[in-house]
Amino acid sequence: MKASCSMFSQILKLIPRTDFERMVKQTGAQYRSKGLSSRSQFVGMLFCQLGRAHSLREIEGGLKSCEGKLVHLGIEAPARSSLSYANGHRPWERV
User: Can you give the residue ranges of the DUF4372 domain (predicted)?
Assistant: First the structure.
């Protein structure tokens, strides 16, 4: 039996988790943050772009609808308030 990956997980494989974590550490993006990891925020924002979501409600609903598949990515569906706070307070550029 062949194992198949979703298009979303194939795109995420293009960005190795170790490289992502190294960049997060370099920029200090996760400094003093609780709850939502930078990886979860990244997956949520990537989902938003690829799914053409226009609001945090659409992102949350879309991620919750495929919550079983998110386990394989190592995250869980974030809440709207967590995404909103992370988007507002985490640096988007290199420090």
Answer: 6-75
* 95 confidence band (pLDDT: 50, 70, 90): very low
Q: CA of 16: how far to CAs of 21, 23, 42, in Å? A: 9, 11, 13
In whole angstroms, give the CA distance from residue 14 to residue 16. Answer: 6
Tell me: the pLDDT tens digits for 62-90? 888 887 777 777 778 888 888 888 888 87
Q: Are 39 and 78 in contact (CB under 8 A)?
A: no
Angstrom CA distances, 5 to 13, 14, 17, 25, stand at 10, 13, 17, 29
Q: Domain residues of the chain, as ranges?
A: 18-25+34-89
